[in-house]
């Protein structure tokens, strides 16, 4: 049986919010079978619980933000990507501010902390969402798509005309049957351009951004002294974002995701379109070894641990 997973013990992460600039601490704690992923604003005693779901994403300006009864939990995509990559199904995430900490701008710190806390299997089958037919969302020249696939695969293309982002490094396909989320995706950092900083600040965004938590580019080059972690770190970070955005579904996908110039808004619209078409997906559990698709046997332990 492919089982649900939670943490062995609680773990804490502290840092600054990328957009708010606020100091924030979150505690991640084990949760019972079938609880799902639950965010709680512990600084607001009367705030509602957030059981992650696509219809709670109501702000996608440079991040994915849950909004319920006027209460916000912002910039959850990197944390959600870590949950997805480690196959976590049931967790309480208690946060004392409106935005998760950005840490180093990737999912790597979250992955490390979660692994240190320990991950345990629970005596219940993991629930997957299997894509049964192609679902696509288009806006202008941007598009995102989910297609049937015997495993989990992500393909993305970005488009930036910038000397530091070569044309050959703007497309990537990651098949998690033979690629590790931890080594190949989790360390890819968010990025931004100096000329966008003033605009972001006017929107109330990017107040916590720095060279410590983002790749920063001027008109010609990467300004970070340590350079890039991957040659194609920019598009790999977009893959990291997409994995996190898709995991707001609350369950792992069996299917192939692809996109061109996609972002948080498009990713969320795709999830909503999938769920709106009952013929496009189905619930799946694997309670016997012979039920598991062949490619799932090859998935790396650092991605849903199948």
TrEMBL record:
Can you cite a GO biological process for this protein? lipid A biosynthetic process
| Record-level Gene Ontology MF annotations | metal ion binding; UDP-3-O-acyl-N-acetylglucosamine deacetylase activity
Q: Which reaction does it catalyse?
A: a UDP-3-O-[(3R)-3-hydroxyacyl]-N-acetyl-alpha-D-glucosamine + H2O = a UDP-3-O-[(3R)-3-hydroxyacyl]-alpha-D-glucosamine + acetate
Q: Does the keyword Lipid biosynthesis apply?
A: yes
Task: Give the matching Gene3D superfamilies.
Answer: lpxc deacetylase, domain 1 (3.30.230.20), lpxc deacetylase, domain 2 (3.30.1700.10)
Q: EC number(s) in its UniProt entry?
A: 3.5.1.108
Q: Which Pfam families match?
A: LpxC
Alphabetized, the UniProt keywords read: Hydrolase, Lipid A biosynthesis, Lipid biosynthesis, Lipid metabolism, Metal-binding, Zinc
| Pathway membership | Glycolipid biosynthesis; lipid IV(A) biosynthesis; lipid IV(A) from (3R)-3-hydroxytetradecanoyl-[acyl-carrier-protein] and UDP-N-acetyl-alpha-D-glucosamine: step 2/6
Tell me the domain of life. Bacteria
Give the residues the record marks as binding Zn(2+): 78, 237, 241
Q: Please name the catalytic residues of this protein.
A: 264
Question: Would you tell me the Gene Ontology cellular component terms?
Answer: membrane
Q: Needs which cofactor? A: Zn(2+)
Look at the named UniProt entry and state the broad enzyme category this protein falls under.
Answer: hydrolase
Q: Which PANTHER family match?
A: UDP-3-O-ACYL-N-ACETYLGLUCOSAMINE DEACETYLASE 1, MITOCHONDRIAL-RELATED
Question: What role does this protein play?
Answer: Catalyzes the hydrolysis of UDP-3-O-myristoyl-N-acetylglucosamine to form UDP-3-O-myristoylglucosamine and acetate, the committed step in lipid A biosynthesis.
Q: Family, per the entry?
A: Belongs to the LpxC family.
- The name this protein goes by in its record: UDP-3-O-acyl-N-acetylglucosamine deacetylase
Q: Which gene encodes it?
A: lpxC
């Amino acid at each position: 049986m492919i089982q649900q997973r939670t943490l062995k013990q609680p773990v804490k992460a502290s840092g600054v919010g990328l957009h708010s600039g606020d100091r924030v601490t979150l505690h991640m704690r084990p949760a019972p079978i079938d609880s799902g992923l639950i965010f709680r604003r512990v600084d607001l005693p009367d705030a509602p619980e957030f059981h992650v779901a696509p219809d709670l994403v109501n702000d996608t300006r440079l991040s994915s933000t849950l909004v319920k009864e006027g209460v916000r939990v912002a910039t959850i995509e990197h944390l959600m990507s870590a949950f997805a990559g480690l196959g976590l199904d049931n967790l309480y995430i208690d946060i004392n501010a409106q935005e998760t900490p950005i840490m180093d701008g990737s999912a790597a710190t979250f992955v490390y902390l979660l692994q240190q806390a320990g991950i345990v299997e629970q005596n219940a089958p993991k629930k997957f969402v299997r894509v049964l037919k192609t679902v696509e969302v288009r806006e202008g020249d941007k598009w995102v798509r989910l297609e049937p696939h015997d495993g989990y695969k992500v393909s993305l293309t970005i488009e930036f005309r910038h000397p530091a982002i070569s044309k050959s490094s703007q497309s990537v396909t990651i098949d998690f049957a033979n690629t590790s989320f931890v080594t190949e995706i989790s360390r890819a950092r968010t990025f931004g351009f100096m000329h966008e900083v003033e605009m972001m600040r006017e929107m109330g965004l990017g107040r916590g951004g720095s060279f410590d938590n983002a790749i920063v580019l001027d008109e010609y080059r990467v300004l970070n002294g340590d350079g890039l972690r991957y040659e194609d770190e920019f598009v790999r970070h977009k893959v990291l974002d997409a994995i996190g955005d898709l995991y707001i579904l609350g369950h792992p996908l069996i299917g192939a995701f692809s996109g061109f110039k996609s972002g948080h808004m498009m990713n969320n619209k795709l999830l909503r379109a999938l769920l709106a078409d009952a013929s496009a997906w189905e619930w799946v559990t694997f309670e016997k070894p012979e039920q598991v698709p062949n490619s799932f046997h090859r998935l790396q332990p650092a991605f849903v641990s199948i």
